[in-house]
Amino acid sequence: METAVANTRTRTSIWSGGRSPFNVSYGKLMMWYFLVSDSFTFGAFLISYGSIRFSLNNWVDHNYVFNKFPFTEANLPLAFVSLMTFILIFSSVTMVLAVHQGHKMNQAGVEKWLFLTILGGLAFLGCQAWEWTHLITHQHEVLVDGVIQHWGTTVSHNPWGPEVMYDGHLVATPGPVAFGGYFFGITGFHGFHVFTGVVINSVMFIKTKRGDFAKRGHYEMVEKAGLYWHFVDLVWVFVFLCFYLI
Amino acid sequence: MSAEITHLPHTEADTAHVKRIWKAFWILLVLTIIELALGLTIYYIDLGADPNETMVLMIKGTICILTLAKAFYIISIFMHLGDEVRSMILSIGIPATLFIWFIVAFIADGASFRHLRNTDAGSRKYIEQKQQFHHPIAEPAEKSDKKLD
What we know:
The structure holds 2 protein chains of 2 kinds.
Chain A: H1 2-12, H2 26-55, H3 62-65, H4 79-103, H5 107-137, E1 140-144, E2 147-151, E3 163-166, E4 169-172, H6 178-209, H7 212-216, H8 220-245
Antiparallel strand pairs in A: 1-2, 3-4
Helix pairs in contact in A: 2-6, 2-8, 4-5, 4-8, 5-6, 6-8
Chain B: H1 11-47, H2 53-78, H3 86-96, H4 98-118, H5 140-148
Helix pairs in contact in B: 1-2
């Protein structure tokens, strides 16, 4: 008698099958778990960067490495990266609005906001391309073994080390090589995520336009793409913190 | 399947939801602007002859806290994790607490490595050398020199 009661109780528990205990679909839950694992990948990169920074007596001064804006030679620390950050926050809000229109089964609304999200993603990638080009091609005076050389910022060259007096003026010495590797590696990995996000969003846009989701009866795919896109924004918040702010 | 997908039939709930999204957006924007202002404050403190390092460290700590606040808003409002079932939030939140150990352990490891290197594994005292990282900004003669090369 008692076992029978216990059995009924188990059967009605949310873990006894027949429905999702988390009240989400399999695909959405797995997207979440993928993002958790991806956050550990990014976390590993950023923490390794932090570890190296803490192990060295000097690093670079980011306010001097990242102080340029397109079409001007003025000294504008933080300006360009703020633009990139605003673009990404804005494309995040357009994405969440696209997901919201999907809940309402409003195809035109999904199309409009997804389109703006894709534009935001492309704008961000454009900014990153400019920033990388600028860092790699813009050369700086460095004193290497008593000889003045001109270096761009690359994975093998860092012209942002401490400055010393040479020939009556201050000249930079080579800084830690790790800087270029970490900067290009981590922002590159993030940029690659943005790129795949743009591709995924474009697929979502095409499928919405073709009416695939309207036929299916729900826009859950857009929601999953949205999770990925917000994650990209989330990672940027930390990349922005680690490379440009502290 | 379809039971798990939320539809929003009511217009009131709808406007409230959209309002919440935009509110989160403005919060993120304001937090970012505060972060930038603090970042620029560090820049100007560093320009001074003898920058107050404790002050800079405290500002950097504040920026880290603001970043965590931004992360919270993105995850809970934009990614809607705040609206999910509690057990699902925990299944994501509990593994994420590993980051606390992860960050503390590796930063401490880096700091220890630096100490060992600076003191030849503790066999000598480390005398810190102040190093200059940038020209004092207002030096026009130097700037025009730089442009030529």
